Amino acid sequence: MQRATTIVRKAAVRPDAVADEVALDHAARSRRSAELTAQGGLAFRLDLDRATTLEDGDAVRLEDGRLVRILAAPQALLAVTAENPIRLTRLAWQLGSNHVQAEMTAEALYVLDDPVVAELIRGQGCTATALQRPFRPEKEAAAHDHSTCGHDHHQHHGHEPHAHEHATHEHHGHDHHGHDHGHGHQHGHAHDHAHDHQHHAHDHGHVHGPGCKHGH
Protein backbone atom coordinates (compact mmCIF):
# COMPACT_ATOMS: atom_id res chain seq x y z
CA MET A 1 0.00 0.00 0.00
CA GLN A 2 1.30 3.42 -0.96
CA ARG A 3 2.02 5.87 1.86
CA ALA A 4 1.21 9.58 1.77
CA THR A 5 3.72 11.48 3.88
CA THR A 6 3.70 14.99 2.40
CA ILE A 7 1.01 17.69 2.24
CA VAL A 8 0.71 19.89 -0.84
CA ARG A 9 -1.38 22.97 -0.14
CA LYS A 10 -4.12 23.96 -2.56
CA ALA A 11 -2.21 26.75 -4.30
CA ALA A 12 0.63 24.37 -5.23
CA VAL A 13 -1.49 21.43 -6.44
CA ARG A 14 -0.90 20.64 -10.14
CA PRO A 15 -4.09 19.19 -11.69
CA ASP A 16 -2.10 16.89 -14.00
CA ALA A 17 -0.46 15.24 -10.96
CA VAL A 18 -3.76 14.40 -9.21
CA ALA A 19 -4.43 10.65 -9.46
CA ASP A 20 -7.56 10.51 -7.29
CA GLU A 21 -9.70 12.38 -4.77
CA VAL A 22 -10.95 11.53 -1.29
CA ALA A 23 -13.77 13.26 0.61
CA LEU A 24 -13.23 13.54 4.38
CA ASP A 25 -15.13 15.20 7.21
CA HIS A 26 -13.34 17.61 9.53
CA ALA A 27 -12.29 14.95 12.07
CA ALA A 28 -10.80 12.76 9.33
CA ARG A 29 -9.01 15.77 7.81
CA SER A 30 -7.33 16.40 11.17
CA ARG A 31 -5.74 12.97 11.60
CA ARG A 32 -2.05 12.21 11.34
CA SER A 33 -2.43 8.58 10.33
CA ALA A 34 -5.22 6.58 8.67
CA GLU A 35 -5.86 4.01 5.96
CA LEU A 36 -8.00 5.61 3.25
CA THR A 37 -9.61 4.65 -0.04
CA ALA A 38 -10.10 7.40 -2.60
CA GLN A 39 -13.20 7.79 -4.77
CA GLY A 40 -11.53 6.06 -7.72
CA GLY A 41 -10.52 3.05 -5.61
CA LEU A 42 -6.93 4.06 -4.87
CA ALA A 43 -6.03 2.75 -1.39
CA PHE A 44 -3.25 4.46 0.55
CA ARG A 45 -2.03 5.08 4.06
CA LEU A 46 -1.90 8.62 5.40
CA ASP A 47 1.29 8.81 7.46
CA LEU A 48 2.17 12.41 8.34
CA ASP A 49 4.88 13.56 10.74
CA ARG A 50 2.33 15.39 12.92
CA ALA A 51 -1.40 15.97 13.10
CA THR A 52 -2.60 18.95 11.08
CA THR A 53 -5.78 20.00 9.30
CA LEU A 54 -6.09 19.25 5.60
CA GLU A 55 -8.19 21.92 3.93
CA ASP A 56 -10.55 21.51 1.00
CA GLY A 57 -8.44 21.46 -2.19
CA ASP A 58 -5.18 20.41 -0.51
CA ALA A 59 -3.49 17.19 -1.61
CA VAL A 60 -1.21 14.54 -0.18
CA ARG A 61 1.72 13.15 -2.15
CA LEU A 62 2.17 9.40 -2.46
CA GLU A 63 5.58 7.73 -2.43
CA ASP A 64 5.49 7.38 -6.24
CA GLY A 65 4.88 11.13 -6.68
CA ARG A 66 1.16 11.04 -7.48
CA LEU A 67 -1.24 13.32 -5.62
CA VAL A 68 -4.55 12.57 -3.94
CA ARG A 69 -6.74 15.65 -3.66
CA ILE A 70 -8.59 16.23 -0.38
CA LEU A 71 -12.24 17.28 -0.48
CA ALA A 72 -14.14 18.59 2.55
CA ALA A 73 -17.11 16.24 2.86
CA PRO A 74 -20.54 17.63 3.84
CA GLN A 75 -21.61 16.72 7.38
CA ALA A 76 -24.50 17.35 9.75
CA LEU A 77 -24.27 20.88 11.13
CA LEU A 78 -26.40 23.52 12.81
CA ALA A 79 -26.54 26.98 11.27
CA VAL A 80 -26.96 29.45 14.12
CA THR A 81 -28.47 32.90 13.62
CA ALA A 82 -29.96 35.60 15.86
CA GLU A 83 -31.88 38.82 15.31
CA ASN A 84 -29.83 40.48 18.04
CA PRO A 85 -26.08 40.28 17.29
CA ILE A 86 -25.30 40.58 21.01
CA ARG A 87 -27.02 37.23 21.59
CA LEU A 88 -24.89 35.60 18.90
CA THR A 89 -21.74 37.13 20.40
CA ARG A 90 -22.68 35.88 23.88
CA LEU A 91 -23.39 32.42 22.47
CA ALA A 92 -20.03 32.34 20.67
CA TRP A 93 -18.31 33.18 23.97
CA GLN A 94 -20.13 30.35 25.76
CA LEU A 95 -19.34 27.87 23.00
CA GLY A 96 -15.67 28.79 23.24
CA SER A 97 -15.75 28.42 27.03
CA ASN A 98 -17.10 24.89 26.56
CA HIS A 99 -14.51 24.07 23.86
CA VAL A 100 -17.20 23.63 21.20
CA GLN A 101 -15.71 24.00 17.73
CA ALA A 102 -17.45 26.60 15.58
CA GLU A 103 -17.14 28.10 12.13
CA MET A 104 -17.97 31.79 11.86
CA THR A 105 -19.18 33.44 8.66
CA ALA A 106 -20.94 36.70 7.83
CA GLU A 107 -24.24 34.83 7.46
CA ALA A 108 -24.21 32.42 10.40
CA LEU A 109 -22.25 30.52 13.00
CA TYR A 110 -21.89 26.78 12.28
CA VAL A 111 -21.44 23.98 14.81
CA LEU A 112 -21.71 20.21 14.69
CA ASP A 113 -25.29 18.98 15.07
CA ASP A 114 -25.55 17.97 18.72
CA PRO A 115 -28.69 17.94 20.95
CA VAL A 116 -26.89 19.44 23.96
CA VAL A 117 -25.41 22.25 21.87
CA ALA A 118 -28.78 22.84 20.20
CA GLU A 119 -30.38 23.30 23.64
CA LEU A 120 -27.69 25.80 24.61
CA ILE A 121 -28.25 27.71 21.37
CA ARG A 122 -31.99 28.00 21.88
CA GLY A 123 -31.50 28.90 25.53
CA GLN A 124 -29.60 31.99 24.38
CA GLY A 125 -32.48 33.08 22.16
CA CYS A 126 -30.77 32.04 18.92
CA THR A 127 -32.10 29.94 16.05
CA ALA A 128 -30.52 26.61 15.06
CA THR A 129 -31.22 25.17 11.61
CA ALA A 130 -29.99 21.69 10.67
CA LEU A 131 -28.21 21.30 7.33
CA GLN A 132 -25.46 19.42 5.50
CA ARG A 133 -22.29 21.28 4.49
CA PRO A 134 -18.50 21.02 4.88
CA PHE A 135 -17.28 22.07 8.34
CA ARG A 136 -14.33 24.44 8.60
CA PRO A 137 -14.12 25.49 12.27
CA GLU A 138 -11.90 28.27 13.50
CA LYS A 139 -8.39 27.16 14.35
CA GLU A 140 -7.27 27.32 17.95
CA ALA A 141 -4.60 29.82 18.85
CA ALA A 142 -1.17 28.27 19.17
CA ALA A 143 -0.04 27.79 22.76
CA HIS A 144 2.67 30.16 23.92
CA ASP A 145 5.98 28.34 24.34
CA HIS A 146 7.81 29.89 27.29
CA SER A 147 10.94 27.91 26.50
CA THR A 148 11.66 30.25 23.56
CA CYS A 149 10.66 33.51 25.22
CA GLY A 150 14.12 34.65 26.15
CA HIS A 151 12.93 35.91 29.54
CA ASP A 152 12.83 34.23 32.90
CA HIS A 153 9.32 33.54 34.22
CA HIS A 154 10.64 32.72 37.69
CA GLN A 155 11.45 36.35 38.43
CA HIS A 156 9.15 39.35 38.48
CA HIS A 157 10.06 42.85 37.36
CA GLY A 158 13.76 42.10 37.36
CA HIS A 159 14.22 41.57 41.12
CA GLU A 160 14.37 38.52 43.30
CA PRO A 161 11.85 38.18 46.14
CA HIS A 162 13.25 38.60 49.68
CA ALA A 163 16.63 39.64 48.34
CA HIS A 164 16.55 43.14 49.89
CA GLU A 165 19.90 44.37 51.15
CA HIS A 166 19.22 45.19 54.80
CA ALA A 167 22.73 46.48 55.45
CA THR A 168 21.69 49.95 54.29
CA HIS A 169 17.99 49.80 55.19
CA GLU A 170 16.79 52.81 57.18
CA HIS A 171 14.34 51.73 59.89
CA HIS A 172 12.34 54.21 62.02
CA GLY A 173 14.59 57.09 61.07
CA HIS A 174 17.82 55.63 62.51
CA ASP A 175 20.67 53.70 60.98
CA HIS A 176 20.76 49.91 61.47
CA HIS A 177 24.24 49.30 60.09
CA GLY A 178 25.16 47.27 63.17
CA HIS A 179 22.14 44.94 63.18
CA ASP A 180 22.51 41.28 62.38
CA HIS A 181 19.55 40.48 60.09
CA GLY A 182 20.25 36.76 59.90
CA HIS A 183 17.76 36.13 62.74
CA GLY A 184 13.97 35.85 62.45
CA HIS A 185 13.37 39.59 62.93
CA GLN A 186 10.81 40.76 60.35
CA HIS A 187 10.31 44.27 59.06
CA GLY A 188 6.73 45.25 58.24
CA HIS A 189 7.14 47.49 55.23
CA ALA A 190 3.61 48.85 55.60
CA HIS A 191 4.27 50.58 58.95
CA ASP A 192 4.20 54.34 59.33
CA HIS A 193 7.60 55.99 59.12
CA ALA A 194 6.16 59.41 59.89
CA HIS A 195 6.42 59.10 63.70
CA ASP A 196 9.46 60.34 65.57
CA HIS A 197 11.24 57.28 66.93
CA GLN A 198 14.53 58.19 68.56
CA HIS A 199 16.98 55.97 70.43
CA HIS A 200 19.18 58.01 72.77
CA ALA A 201 22.60 56.45 73.32
CA HIS A 202 21.21 53.16 72.03
CA ASP A 203 23.83 50.48 71.40
CA HIS A 204 23.13 48.91 68.01
CA GLY A 205 25.85 46.33 68.40
CA HIS A 206 23.57 43.75 70.05
CA VAL A 207 21.69 41.02 68.17
CA HIS A 208 17.88 40.95 68.33
CA GLY A 209 16.64 37.63 69.67
CA PRO A 210 13.60 36.04 71.31
CA GLY A 211 14.53 37.59 74.67
CA CYS A 212 15.26 41.04 73.31
CA LYS A 213 13.15 43.72 75.01
CA HIS A 214 14.10 46.38 72.53
CA GLY A 215 10.72 47.74 71.44
CA HIS A 216 10.20 48.51 67.75
UniProtKB/TrEMBL annotation:
The annotated regions of Basic and acidic residues compositional bias extend over 135-195
CC per GO annotation: cytoplasm
For region Disordered, the annotated ranges are: 132-216
Tell me the superkingdom of the source. Answer: Bacteria
Q: Where in the cell is it found?
A: Cytoplasm
Its GO biological process annotations read:
protein folding
Q: Which portions of the chain have biased composition (kind: Basic residues)?
A: 196-216
**Where is it chiefly localized?**
cytoplasm
Q: Which UniProt keywords apply?
A: Chaperone, Cytoplasm, Nickel
SMART domains per record: UreE_N
Q: Which residues form the signal peptide?
A: none
**Span of domain UreE urease accessory N-terminal:** 3-68
Gene Ontology terms for molecular function: nickel cation binding; unfolded protein binding
Q: What's its job?
A: Involved in urease metallocenter assembly. Binds nickel. Probably functions as a nickel donor during metallocenter assembly.
To which protein family does this belong?
A: Belongs to the UreE family.
Name used for this protein in its record: Urease accessory protein UreE
- Organism of origin is Methylobacterium tarhaniae
Report which gene this protein is encoded by: ureE
